[in-house]
Amino acid sequence: MREKALALLRAGTVIPAFPLTLNADRSFNERRQRALIRYYLDAGVGGLAVAVHTTQFAIRDPKIGLFKPILHIAREEADAFEARTGKTILRIAGACGPTAQAVAEAEYAKSEGYDAVLLSTGGLNDYTVDQLIDRAEQVGRVMPIVGFYLQPSVGGRVLPYEYWARLCEIPAVIAIKAAPFNRYQTLDVVRAAAMSSRPDEITLYTGNDDNIVADLLTTYRFTMPDGSVREKRFDGGLLGHWSMWTKTVVDMFGMLKAAQASEEMPTSLLTLAAEITDCNAAFFDAANRFAGCIPGVHEVLRRQGLMEGIWCLDPEETLSPGQAEEIDRVYRMYPHLNDDRFVAENLDKWLNG
Q1: 8-state DSSP, 235
Q2: How open is the CA angle 229-185-253, to the nearest 5 degrees?
Q3: Do 119 and 102 form a contact (C-beta atoms < 8 A)?
Q4: Which of 169, 106, 166, 168 has its CA nearest to residue 139?
Q5: Could you tell me which of 234, 244, 265, 341 has the fewest CB atoms within 10 Å of its CB?
Q6: Alpha helix stretches (DSSP H) within the chain
Q7: φ and ψ at 206, to 5 degrees?
Q8: 224's torsion region: left (phi>0), alpha (psi -120 to 50) or beta?
Q9: DSSP secondary-structure letter at 20?
């Protein structure tokens, strides 16, 4: 892993889990994809998460064949941005599926110059903890790993504390994204990392789109068997929610990092936390068990002009009844959270750059 990329990961940064741009016939829209990546980079993100849940796992279907192209395009745009600005962009590629598939995806990500893989356990309900750990060890021989607790509503599974405790002992595991959308399960991840033999080598990233601000403001404290106390916190976020209104997200993240370092925390941040969770409920379609989470992301980006439509690879995957109206509501209710002006000022440049 590149030294500067690892330092950036350790410090904590904004990493959007970015979506896939399609045409009306569901073919790949490369021009819009590059524009979307340029939007994130110019907004000030520290990294990109590619080929993850928000990008749609179906890109791996041989009939669709977009796993490799999407990684390649994101790498090209990150390279160009780094060359132009001198800024390091952390590159994380999704890896999923059975062991052989996950290893092969890690190998391709490595060949494209990615820094780490986000290793999902989605779809592996028949794997035992031993099998999951063996899989992680095999992937870790190829690339550094960001562990991933994906919520069951969108294809993940409930994982016992034992899994996280053992995962944290694998030297290749450098970070964990906790996204179970569940406080108890999130605590399992934090406690396992804090009480492991390598607590300072594992950086925690929130993926809990329903609890972003509170995750980033909380210091977790655990008493060890010898009576000593260890603290752990989420240092950054890797979130589908951060693939929308991203310029505002970057500004907010700077404010939250300052609050982390301060002994006094403004109570206004708790109000902000509730506002963002309310927006996420609309975008991710919480009312319908997240059925419209990816189309919801697309709809926000469509309204801004970054996407031409909300099309997903699965024609049946679309907004739920009432979801568009909920997005209307949060747009009206929290106008300070969108970055529509930033997008409008730069969209032509991103589309034609």
Answers
A1: E
A2: 75
A3: yes
A4: 106
A5: 341
A6: 3-11, 30-43, 67-85, 99-111, 129-140, 161-167, 183-194, 212-217, 246-261, 268-283, 293-304, 323-333, 340-352
A7: -80, 135
A8: beta
A9: P
pLDDT in tens, 311-344: 999 999 999 999 999 999 999 999 999 999 999 9
**What are the distances in angstroms from CA 179 to CA 53, 189, 326?**
11, 10, 23
Tokens 């972003």 sit on residue: 212
Rounded distance between C-alpha atoms, residue 115 and residue 148, angstroms: 16
Q: For the chain, how many residues are written? A: 353
How large is the C-alpha radius of gyration of the chain? 19
Q: What letter represents residue 10's amino acid?
A: R
Environment class of 84 (CB within 10 Å of its CB; exposed 0-12, middle 13-18, buried 19+): exposed
pLDDT tens-digit profile of 24-61? 999 999 999 999 999 999 999 999 999 999 999 999 99
Residue by residue, DSSP assigns 105-132 as HHHHHHHTT-SEEEE--TT-TT--HHHH
Judging by beta carbons within 10 Å of its beta carbon (0-12, 13-18, 19+), is residue 352 exposed, middle or buried? exposed
pTM, rounded to two decimals: 0.97
Q: Which phi and psi angles does 220 have, rounded to 5°?
A: -95, 135
CB 8, CB 44: distance < 8 Å: no
Q: First and final CA of the chain: distance in angstroms?
A: 29
